[in-house]
From TrEMBL:
Domain Glutamine amidotransferase: 49-192
Superkingdom per UniProt: Bacteria
Name of the featured protein: Glutamine amidotransferase
Source organism (scientific name): Agromyces humatus
Keywords: Glutamine amidotransferase
Gene3D superfamilies: 3.40.50.880
Record has DNA repair as a keyword: no
Length: 243
């Protein structure tokens, strides 16, 4: 089988390693078949799409809607690298699944409106599939509404005509969309479980996702409802695109 790639941007080793472990476990791939590239550490290597089965993108600290002068040189580099990669990915309709930061990367590439109108605190939210989502193969075996982990400062306010809306939540109208037949982006985190999001809550406690006195409340918020279905998407993606 040709390998998949996980493009990651987390600078902190513990949440970065936990993210990779979660993608491995929930995709049922092993380390030979899921190559991790840490973009915060070095420039993106040239990816030969003909030698790959598909691309995953993890979450991270970058916000596409931040003013250019507030973005670090690393963020500017990563955004340019994703722009060039997505030129090829979208043109070829190559299998791509971006989780959380996927909304920023694919959304910007397609001309979506991204701002802070529909930010969501770290929590569990009900995500509801659209008719297109209910018939999408990556979402097969998921119920019409399921719980998912979220936590983001920005979101898509308006999708371009090139995108198909697949899922929404009460506080964020664009939770998942597709471009073409094989390029996906989610606002929620399909890879996460309670232990994984707990690691992130502690790792990013001072990154502005919640106030200093809200740590315990945030930890409680991600335990208020079970989250069991979103990880199935990763297996579906692998089963559909492994080659």
């Amino acid at each position: 089988m040709k390998p998949f790639v996980l493009l990651a941007t987390r600078a902190e080793d513990q949440p970065a390693d936990e993210e990779y472990a979660l993608f491995l476990r929930n995709s049922r791939l092993d380390e030979r078949d899921l190559i991790r590239v840490r973009l915060e550490a070095a420039p993106m290597p040239r990816l030969d799409l003909d030698a790959l089965s598909g691309i995953f993108v993890g979450g991270g600290p970058f916000n596409a809607s931040d003013p250019p002068e507030q973005k670090t040189p690393v963020q500017h580099r990563v955004e340019a690298e994703f722009g060039a990669l997505l030129d090829e990915v979208v043109a070829r309709d190559f299998p791509f699944l971006g989780a959380c930061y996927g909304v920023g990367t694919v959304g910007v590439h397609q001309g979506a409106v991204i701002d802070r109108t529909y930010s969501e605190p770290i929590s569990v939210v009900p995500v509801t599939l659209t008719d297109a989502g209910a018939s999408d193969p990556i979402l097969a075996a998921l119920p019409p509404t399921f719980n998912a982990f979220v936590g983001h400062k920005e979101a898509i306010t308006a999708l371009p005509g090139t995108a198909t809306l697949l899922a929404s939540s009460p506080t964020c109208p664009v939770q998942m969309f597709r471009v073409g037949a094989n390029v996906y982006a989610t606002q929620f985190h399909p890879e996460l479980d309670v232990d994984g999001i707990t690691v992130r809550i502690h790792a990013y406690a001072d990154h502005g996702y919640f106030a200093a006195d809200e740590l315990e409340a945030t930890l409680a918020a991600v335990r208020r409802a079970p989250v069991s279905y979103p990880s199935r998407m990763l297996r579906n993606f692998v089963e559909r695109h492994a080659r």
